[in-house]
Structure formats: C-alpha cells, structure tokens
Amino acid sequence: MKTTKDEAKHGPLKVGFVLARSFTLSAFALFVDTLRLASDETDRSGRVLADWQVLGSTRHLIASSCGVQIAPTSDFVDPREFHYIVVVGGLLNSDVAIDSQTSDYLKKAAAQKVPLIGVCTGTFILAQLGLMKSHQTCVSWLHYQAYRERFPDNPVRSDRLFNLDRSRGSCAGGSSAADMAAFLVRRHISRDAERNALEVLQIVRARSGLDIQPRKPLAIECQDPRLKAVLITMESHIEDVVPTEELAAFVGLSRRQLERLFMEEMKASPGAIYTRVRMERAKQLVLQTQAPLIEIALEVGFDSASHFARLFRRVFGQSPAELRRAQA
After folding, report:
1. What's the pLDDT score for residue 262?
2. Does residue 208 surpass a pLDDT of 90?
3. Where is the HTH araC/xylS-type domain (predicted)?
C-alpha cells in the first residue's frame, strides 16, 4: 500500500485486519464481505469505495478456530493508512493470541489515534494491552464473566450487539460483525452501499448498536428491548445484585418508568423478576452440578444458606436438596 496519510483520510474506506490465533472465521468473513459488497455495485468485488488488508508480522498462515487458514496480505504498514484497524479474536484458551510485534503495532496505532475495533474476543486482546480502560466495551453474553474477571476495572456490557466509543469499537461477534461493518459503511460511504451489501448477504436490515443481543435470559419471556437488556444485565450480575436505579439508568429510564414497564409486560416488579433470575440460575446449579448448597447460595448472591433454601422452596415448591434427590 502506497497511500499517504492524507489520501487515507479522503479516499476509500480502508480497514486493516489483525487476526488472532484461533480467530472466529464467521466474524471475520461477515465483516470483510460487508466491505467487499459495499465497495462496488451488485457483486463485482471491485475495491472502489472500500479497501482492506489482512496485516501480519509474517506471511505465515493464521489458523481459525474451525481450522481454515488465512494468509496475511500486508506487512505492518503505517497504521495511519487505515480508517480502522479491526482485531478479530477467537478461542480464549489460546495461550498466545498475538505475537509481540503485533502487540507493538496495535499500541503504535493507538498512540497515533487510529481507531481500533475488537470483534468477538478481539476486545480481550485490546484490553490485555491496556487499550480499553476508558472505553465502554461490548462483549458477547457468553464471554461477559470472563471479561469481568480478567479486566475488573474496564467498563463492559453484554446486552448490545456492538459499540463505538470514541476511538475504540467493540462487537459481540457472530452475525453482529456484519452489523458493525454496515454501520461503518453507512458512516463513510453511503446508505446505498450499506443496502447493497446487506441485500446480497440476504440480511433484511442492519441492526444498530442499540439492538439487543439475541439472548433469552433463563427462559424468561419479554418483548420490549429495554426489558431484554435489563434481564441480560440481571443474568450477568447474579452474585453482585445491581440496584433497580442502576438497571433503569442503564437503559435510559427512571426507576419509576422501569417499574411501570415491568408491571405492564411481566406483571411483576424488577426486584421480583431479579429474584426469579437468581433462582433459575440456582436451579441450574442444583441440577447440573454437585456443588454444596452453601456454594450455590453464595454464587447467586445469598449470604445465608437457610434464607436461600426458604426462598428456593417458595419459588419451586421444594427445597434445593429435595430437588436434587428427586433428580438423582
């Protein structure tokens, strides 16, 4: 790539990809194909309105989590040649997700104010480098607890599909990679380009960063997206219960508005539903593990095993011990 810093700002949308070891192929493919289809009319694949490179410290093949391998197409050129650098993560049990040269390159890009986007567990890589501390991070509900444990001081949420917080982006992965790419296409190219890409991909509409991850928390039904977001937050905070005021603020409502919404759709208060979420999680642990009941009580936010057992009986009609014996 021979473009200058100024040309990169005014030319086509340019994206550099950094693929971690055992990266998620679907997330990368959906992101880059959205750019490809937006870059030209119909399905001609010309790099007219967008361009992209897979960056690497070597040209060695990088294996995805499903075994398919991708070859880098560019060395580590000046980060300022790109509008965004996208880090695609994958399996969290990979010992070394990226090498030291790649780490240095991402730090250099951050120092040069180039926006960085973590897709799937790419956010873990950026956080490990200290690049997400002051940025709201969006991760999949599947990886929420792992992120909180590894980076307890970093703000994180698992209800939304993707987020762009100033010079950092984050995306839950899966099909939401196409949504985030479409958002960038609309911002830098046009709505027509976005529409062309999504239609060819057979995607009905681009979901926004405010759309909720398609997760049904512990079999509790609701339709309002704000309630779904609150339920996902409840499920993510079983042990450390979040006050109702904070739950409401999280979705842009007052406490009274949230309580009214719960009563209208779920015929119960936020507190009652929160208790049900915690009890449903406790029931899972009782049936699926051999953990002592006191450990289960602590895991779902109770200091007293007796209090936990009484509430469990009130909700399910039998004590945790009785339920476990019945399923033995």
Report:
1. 93
2. no
3. 228-326
